[in-house]
Amino acid sequence: MSQAPFAPVAPADAHEIGGGIFGLMGQMDHENLFFCHDKATGLKAIIGIHNTVLGPALGGTRFWNYTDEAAALRDVIRLSRGMTYKAAISGINLGGGKAVIIGDPRQLKSEALWRRYGRFVESLKGKYITAEDVGTSTADMEFVAMETRHVAGKPSWMGGGGDPSPVTAHGVYLGLKAGLKEVFGTDDAKGRRVAVEGAGNVGTYLVKRLRQEGAEVWVSDLHQDRVEHACLSYGARPTTTDALFDLDIDVYSPCALGATLNDRTIDRLHCSIVAGAANNQLEDESRHGEMLREKGIVYCPDFLINAGGLINCYAEYLGNYHQQHALEMTEVIYSRTLEILKTANNQGITTHEAALRAAASRLEAVAILKSRL
Ligand code: NAD
Question: Of 86, 157, 173, which Cα lies nearest the Cα of 165?
C-alpha cells in the first residue's frame, strides 16, 4: 500500500547515511539541505528544511562540537523533521527547519561568523527563519539580525521575544495539568507529587508554578546550586536524577536531556504521568511509548507540550511582539493535549503516535487546500 504523503515516518530516525544524502532526505522526506562554508570565519553550517507546506521553516541554530560531519547531518535531519510536527500539532503556520553549526562555540563564535551565517540565511529569502538553540544565545541573534530579517529570538530592544523559556514552561505546565485531568478527573495540582529533572531555565519556572499551586515538588540537577536555588526559592525538595526514579510520585517531568525514557528507567518509574520540556524523551519512539502505555503511564508527548518556545518565535515572526500574546497562544496546549490523550485511549495507540498522526493529518489537509488555490 502506498504511504500517504504526510504519514509519520518510522521513528527509526536518521541512523544510517549509507544510502547517501539523498537516501537520507528521502527516508525523512526532506525538501532541502543547504551546506554553508566560509573559510575566513571557520563557518561550517548545514541548514535543513524538512517541510514548508504550512509556511516558512522556522527552527533554531545548534552550535555543537560534533564528533564528525555525519553526526551533524543526522542531527539537522532529525531536528528539522521534529520542527515540522511540532508546528503542525501546535496549529501554527510554520514549516519545519533547523540548522547546525559544526565546531566548538567557545572557540569559533565571532561577530564575523554570525554575520556571514546571517547572509546565508538571508540568501534563502525567508524560506528558513533561524533562532537560538543549544550553544547559541539571544546576543548571537543580534549579529545575525544585522544581515537578515529572517531571525527570531532577538532581544526585546530589537522587538524580539528574547528568552523563550517562560513561554515553554507555561506550555509544559498546561500539558502537565491536562495529564492530571485525564488521570485524576481534576487538573488541580494541589497536593500532587511531581519530580522535575533539570532545574534549568524551563525546569525552574515549572517548579515555581507548581509550588504556587500547592504541589509537592522534588528537583534534581547535575549542578547542586540549581537544586539549592529551586529548594530555597520555591520550597522544592532535593533529589538526584537516579533517586528520582524510585520516588513514589504522580508526575515525572523530564526537563534536562532527551532519551530519559528507556529500557533502564521505565521499569523503575512509579508515576501516573510523564510531562516535561525535554526534546525526544522517548529513546525509541515506538517501543518506549508502548512500554509506558502498557504500564498505564500517561505520556504527554514532548513535541506537543514543549511547543511554547516555537510559539514564542512565531509571535515574534508575526510582528508587534508581546509576551502576553505568546502566553495566550500557548494556552491551546491544554485542550490539544486532552484531545490527544483521549484519541490515544480510544484508538488503543500510544499518545506519541496519536500526536504524530494529528500533526500529519493537519499537514495533509493544508497541502490539499493549497493545491486547490
Ligand atoms: P537549561 O540548559 O537551562 O537546563 C537544563 C538543566 O538540566 C541544566 O541545569 C543542567 O545542569 C540539567 N541537567 C543536564 N543533565 C542532567 C541530568 N542528567 N540530570 C539532571 N539535570 C541535568 O535548558 P532549558 O532551556 O531549561 O531546557 C530544558 C530542556 O527543554 C532541554 O532539553 C531543551 O532542549 C528543552 N526545550 C527547551 C525550550 C526552551 O524554550 N528553553 C523549548 C523546547 C524544549
Answer: 173
Tell me the pLDDT band of 16, cut-offs 50, 70 and 90. low
Q: Is the pLDDT of residue 189 over 50?
A: yes
Centre of ligand 1 to C-alpha 217, Å, is 17
196-209: pLDDT as tens digits: 999 999 999 999 99
Give residue 198 CA to ligand 1 midpoint distance, Å: 6
60 phi/psi in degrees, rounded to 5:
-70, 170
Contact 164 CB / ligand 1 (< 6 Å): yes
Q: How far apart are CA 252 and CA 195, in angstroms?
A: 5
Active-site choice (86, 98, 127, 177): 98
Catalytic (active site) residue 98: yes
Cα–ligand 1 centroid distance for 37 (angstroms): 30
Give the ligand 1 atom nearest the CA of 164: 40
- Determine the residue of 63, 98, 257 to mutate for testing ligand 1's pocket, defined as the one with the most ligand atoms within 8 A of the Cβ atom: 257
Model confidence band, residue 188 (pLDDT cutoffs 50, 70, 90): very high
The stretch 70-99 carries a mean pLDDT of 95
C-alpha cell at 264: 533502564
List the domains of the chain with CATH numbers.
Answer: 19-84+95-158 (3.40.50.10860), 165-307+334-359 (3.40.50.720)
pLDDT digits (tens, 9 = 90+) for 120-142: 999 999 999 999 998 999 999 99
**φ/ψ of residue 164, rounded to 5:** -80, -5
Q: Which residues of 330-365 are buried (b: 16+ CB within 10 A; e: fewer)?
A: bebbbebbbebbebbeeeebbbbbbbbbbbbebbbe
pLDDT score of 9: 44
